[in-house]
């Protein structure tokens, strides 16, 4: 019995050590409505309430107007607990980034010019894991109509050309006020159809004025128009957070939410009646602070400690190579290397994480191995993930099937 207890305690200590080497990071995007404007002091208590309840590790905002606004938000709203990036005065309103220094180190910033507003690229290093994280903040052209849709497409095309130039396995998040009404719009399709950007909650559809998507709407949290903001109640998913496929293993998709939206305020103000997502004080703060709701999502990053390094040593020597050809039709070649014999499974998964094909499952000797995969006829065109998995092993590659 004593031996069992010692084993249990040892496992518990090891498990706790592993957990202690993980960090859950909250990223939030928020259009803060022409800040500071002429009413920053009046809105300050509302933003303070929101910031204190969200507790973001990285907060990215749109519609910032000046360095004075950045300083005010840093010191008066966030109580100096965050660092901020120096304000960039581009056309129209701009982006701003605030981050907790114990968690992140700021590396660089770059701005991409469009015909309307600049797109910001912030590069941070997560201190515990040492991983770089690129965050792109955008505020696309507003309003419906084909001309505005083409403007949005032109803006995201500039961003996508850059994203395609990044090295493989780059961690990035694209967030902000997209002003997109439906997932079928060309701008959203251009960002997502080949897997360049992924929606963590995979919620395609016509979001505009559609009660089926009431839980993810972000504009407007107010029926009435005041302070220069939009009105009409919650009926649009303008604000979003998209990720690279390399962040799929880090994202906690169940933690993605339009903050303060309980799904029961379709075409209503966020503080109308009872809000089941947040207390009344927070619902009122969201109503008065801005004409958008914040969107937040949580990510888990792990430290490359000796504890993890020893357990994963074999994983780091195993290799899953990019399939060839890619994109492909009707078949593609898959190659991987194992430094020692082991049980593995090789499979193909869709963007929802569902297995669509089992290529191999069993014991595989050490060395190089190659398979030819011919997808089933009913499998549609699109992006899929090839995964090689085993004990303490998970490697993946992105593939694109063309029909």
Keywords:
33% strand, 8 helices, Immunoglobulin-like, Deoxyribonuclease I, Chain A, five-stranded mixed beta sheet, single chain, six-stranded mixed beta sheet
Topology:
Elements: H1 2-20, E1 22-35, H2 40-54, E2 58-64, H3 67-77, E3 83-84, E4 94-99, E5 104-112, E6 119-126, E7 132-139, H4 146-164, E8 172-177, H5 186-192, E9 239-243, E10 251-258, H6 280-289, E11 295-302, H7 306-311, H8 313-317, E12 319-320, E13 332-338, E14 342-349, E15 355-364, E16 367-373, E17 382-390, E18 393-401
Parallel strand pairs: 1-2, 7-8
Antiparallel strand pairs: 1-11, 2-4, 3-4, 5-6, 6-7, 8-9, 10-11, 12-13, 13-16, 14-15, 14-17, 17-18
Helix pairs in contact: 2-3, 2-6, 4-5
Question: Roughly how much helix do the residues carry, as a percent range?
Answer: 10-25%
Largest sheet: 6 strands, mixed
How many DSSP E strands? 18
Sequence of strands across the biggest β-sheet: 3-4-2-1-11-10
Within the CATH hierarchy, at the fold level, what is the topology of the largest domain?
A: Deoxyribonuclease I, Chain A
The top level CATH class name of the largest domain: Alpha Beta
CATH architecture group name of the largest domain: 4-Layer Sandwich
Low-pLDDT ranges:
7-19, 306-316
Distance separating the two termini: 61 Å
Label the overall shape: globular
Oligomer: single chain
Mean pLDDT score, rounded?
A: 90
Beta-strand content bin = 25-35%
Question: What integer value in Å does the Rg equal?
Answer: 23 Å
Question: Helical stretch count?
Answer: 8
**What's the CATH H-level superfamily name of the largest domain?**
Endonuclease/exonuclease/phosphatase
